[in-house]
Design a protein that fits this description.
The chain is α+β, with helices and mostly antiparallel strands and 353 residues long. Helices cover 37% and strands 25% of the residues. The radius of gyration is 26 Å and the shape is globular. The protein starts with a helix and ends with a strand.
């Protein structure tokens, strides 16, 4: 082979090698890029949409496991589902202790703790009264005052007894009944995030109604950015009055703009004060809580809404949780722990130091 031919062959081999390297780089880049794309899904459970965005090689499996975990939880704790732990507990009210799933026992214990420490502002035994109002149902209406007074006698967290070690619970009096709607969606976020961790997801965010769970670090390293809904935005759920940038945690919001009806010119919301049996009148229209667990954030959001600014902030501090409270006169109170994370974006509101 002459020298010129050798050079041509060598050049061709060099070009081929470069092309192969380039192809390998492109394939690897496309694979990496695909891995960075999240898997998103939307299902329906717990009476709400369950929305997920999950990152990592096992993102689809993790999202599927999380959805299954949420459904299992609903089957255990929904009072509407025949044979659930809570349905059986309500049916056995005033009789004996019943065996329940350890997960249900743990959740009932959490609910009881918040009820006790909030002096009943959050009360899982609210069902006898909330059923009268039927918020979100086909027969939502203002009950007669005599009815509210009668059924309020069945409400009282002191009637609930939980033995976590034995996985048993009981209701002391006949007529008492549990509704975990004020803690269940947050608990669903706990269940989903646990599945992300166990299934090998790199990161994920799950939203169940007004509760959100955050897991891991986003691929681009940025914080999770959440909008705080503008309570004056009407039906526009996407309109935010502020932003929260968080690395992790659980977030729940309770607002008087959800599940409302108007009767005789007056609007009623679903956040009932257990002490009166009527919608809470604390001066607040929205409460967003950031806490170490979804269940805690959910129950605290309800409790703080009922308690109002001063007592609500004190309760958050007691639990080491943070909050963004919006008042009827458009003032915004932010816990010290969230002041660097929260950004007010609407000039309709005034940030109170």
């Amino acid at each position: 082979m002459n020298e010129q031919r050798k050079r041509k062959v060598g050049w061709a081999l060099a070009v081929l090698a470069a092309v192969l390297v380039l192809v390998a780089v492109v394939v690897q880049w496309n694979r990496w890029k695909a891995e960075q794309q999240p898997f998103t899904s939307t299902e329906f459970a717990m009476g709400s949409y369950v929305q997920q965005t999950v990152y990592g090689d096992r993102r689809e499996e993790a999202a599927s496991e999380a959805a299954n975990a949420v459904q299992r939880l609903e089957n255990q704790i929904s009072w509407r589902i025949e044979g659930s732990d809570i349905a059986r507990l309500n049916e056995a009210a005033g009789t004996d202790w019943i065996a329940i799933d350890p997960q249900t026992a743990e959740l009932l214990a959490q609910a009881l703790d918040v009820a006790e420490r909030s002096n009943g502002a959050y009360d899982p035994t609210i069902l006898p009264v909330s059923s009268l109002w039927d918020f979100g149902g086909e027969n939502q209406h203002l009950p007669e005052a005599e009815q509210i007074e009668e059924y309020r006698s069945y409400v009282g967290y002191q009637n609930l007894r939980v033995d976590e070690q034995a996985s048993e619970a009981s209701l002391k009096i006949h007529g008492a009944a549990i509704d975990l709607g004020g803690i269940g969606k947050g608990a669903a976020c706990d269940a989903a995030v646990q599945m992300y961790q166990e299934s090998g997801a790199e990161a994920g965010i799950v939203a169940v109604g007004g509760s959100i769970g955050l897991y891991g670090e986003k691929p681009d390293g940025s914080l999770w950015r959440l909008g705080v809904r503008d309570p004056n935005s009407g039906d526009d759920r996407a309109e935010a009055m502020g932003l929260l940038d968080l690395a992790s945690g659980f977030v729940s919001t309770s607002g008087s703009y959800e599940k409302t009806f108007t009767e005789n010119g007056k609007t009623y919301h679903h956040l009932l004060d257990p002490k009166t049996g009527y919608p809470a009148e604390s001066g607040l229209v929205s409460v967003t809580v950031v806490a170490k667990s979804g269940a805690l954030s959910d129950a605290l959001a309800t409790a703080v809404f009922v308690l109002g600014e001063e007592q609500g902030m004190a309760l958050l501090e007691e639990y080491g949780a943070g909050g963004v409270l919006i008042s009827q006169d458009n003032r915004v109170l932010v816990s010290d722990s969230l002041k660097d994370a929260f950004q007010l974006t609407s000039d309709m509101y005034t940030l109170v130091s």
